[in-house]
Structures
1.
Amino acid sequence: MRIAVTGAGGRLGRELARALRSHDALLLDRRALDVTDPAACAAALGGADAVIHAAAWTDVDGAESAPADARATNVFGANNVAAAAPYVVVVSTDFVFDGRASAPYDEDAEPDPLQVYGETKLVGERAALLANENVAVARSAWLYGAAEPDGFVRAVLQRLEAGSPFEVVTDQVGSPTYVADLAPALVAMCEQRATGTFHVANSGEASRYDFARAIARAAGRDESLIVPVATADAPPRPAARPAYAPLRSTRHPALPPWEDALRRAMPDILGA
Ligand SMILES: NC(=O)c1ccc[n+]([C@@H]2O[C@H](COP(=O)([O-])OP(=O)(O)OC[C@H]3O[C@@H](n4cnc5c(N)ncnc54)[C@H](OP(=O)(O)O)[C@@H]3O)[C@@H](O)[C@H]2O)c1
């Protein structure tokens, strides 16, 4: 089975490359395939049995000032990829939800994104499902991995290294997810040709503050440097974030608890 990956140079894409080491894999970074080009998608993906579509505009704040660019990648790109291949897993996000829930979101919950990024990802999901009946949408959340140069985990470790106290918000709650747990689950979805919408995230929930403290503990750093703050008292950001958007699934086996995933991840993160 030949599995292609779009966005193969990204955080998830690089981990998918690892998960597909013993497969017939076609790894397409942005230089190899710009997903906004429908003819290029048809040419690059037509010969694959399955595609994991990990390419996306992921700059949540930047999307607010460049909505057409975010839409081109997240909506038209998802449509182009879904139309080009026999089977596609489209990776999506918890940011399709408004975060006003009081319990974790399952696949039947109604999306209602708060910002341009979430809106473009939601329309992209729908475009892909319409373009091809053999599509799975896999929503995940708060991704982190060992090989990433930036991202929340890396930022927290840098602040801890600097040694001065810093604030992290307590009222944004989600499902931190280790890409090394997510990537094999996406490959398994291809092998099973799962279709429909799935929530695929490490189980449990954490605030950004909880997550930052756990990062400090797992890395053997001083967690007391991390100071709780409410979003309303933190520096404003262009895009609103959902307050409470953990994911749970009624359709996909739960991934391991996020605390366990973080402990497993930390040696690789520190060694990268
Ligand atoms: N990061 C998270 O916390 C998170 C949470 C939930 C869901 N997701 C979803 O998970 C997927 C993977 O995200 P990630 O964290 O791996 O993001 P990432 O590191 O930003 O990777 C996305 C990749 O897509 C590429 N890309 C952007 N525009 C493209 C285009 N027009 N054609 C082809 N490639 C393009 C980017 O290339 P350049 O870097 O060269 O622009 C980048 O390599 C995305 O669908 C994202 O929405 C992410």
Note: The longest strand covers residues 88-93.
2.
Amino acid sequence: MARSALSTLGCSRCSRTYDPDRIQQLCECGAPLLARYDLATAATSLTRESLARRPHGLWRFRELLPVRRDDAVVSLGEHASPILPLRRAGESVGLTDLYCKDEGALPTGSFKARGAAVGISRARELGVQRFAMPSNGNAGSAWSLYAARAGMQAIIVMPAVSPPIHRIQCLLAGAKVVLVDGLINDAGRLVSRACAKDGVYDASTMKEPYRIEGKKTLGFEIAEQFEWNVPDVIVYPTGGGVGLIGMHKAFRELQAIGLLGPALPRFIAVQSSGCAPIVKAFREQRDVSQPWDGASTVAFGINVPKAIGDFLILRILAETGGSAIAVDDEDILEYQERLAKHEGVLASLEGAATLAAVAQARKLGTIGAGERVLIINTASGSLQLESACPPIEKLGVDDELQIARDH
Ligand SMILES: Cc1ncc(COP(=O)(O)O)c(C=O)c1O
Ligand SMILES: [Zn+2]
């Protein structure tokens, strides 16, 4: 089995570096730490030829993942998620080359499985037994289930208004669940204070360096599935932005080891107009976002009023010539239905938001008709369908069922 080429942890803002083989959280300056690899070493064994011989799944990119020991790997069978051509949805927005990476197919039903698989494996390798984290839902489910598999204890703090299905999943997995009468940032503050007081590992978004390494595999897979010619545009539903930062990091690392050419996709960050701090900061050409007051959207996973990695997201949008788009909740619901009706894809509301954004970008000309565009459906729609249910005809047991008139 190939080995991890992890070499150090570097600050995303200042020049400090940290020992990766000890538990680390944020840099002293308060910014997230990012894993760095010995890329020359990774390049000697991570090649197109060696990849062709390796088993499927995210661990095939082992050199550029932080887990050193095979026996530390915690897996629920993370296969590559499919990339589906969207012919009819594409036509409806004037695109001939539109695709969806459907992350609903991953264990636990969302792309959060990637971060949990790698984050939990590395935490276990470093001797962590308990961790706490805030979550809007999917991350809590994924981390609870992977923690159960690893024999670790998870403490998940969730907004009381988050979809109940997730807290049930966490409880089934044996996690301690606490609801907070507030949003994800409030949950984050509670976690941060408790972790500091009790010396518990804080697994909040970007407060430990390894969740993003798992999210990075989304980028590795995209590059490989598109046969090392990445799409022109990648459209991502952005809350904390970990997936977006992760994909970008993946492409940079693949470039550095010679697996990808110089062209990078333009990244489009999508938010709901009910919570759009990144979109606002992007429009105002700021380096960081301001906390969004009164955040509210049906797409709960992207209801993040202030992301700790906002400066990284904004930097990537600028560097790749991308943009940031806000979509209304009604459009999110409409595009969720369209994806199901036109394509058979049961998308999450966050995923549906990306198609709504593509429609908007086409009207504005931000995306050209001939471009190859990839939207990311970050979770299965089956986890949150209450808000989407259309009216249904109801019959008494002796009524007559009328089918002929419908077709
Ligand atoms: C379904 C879904 N999509 C998108 C996101 C946002 O992810 P990120 O933190 O990478 O921006 C989340 C986060 O909770 C989510 O659950
Ligand atoms: Zn720093």
Note: Residues 349-364 form the longest helix (16 residues).
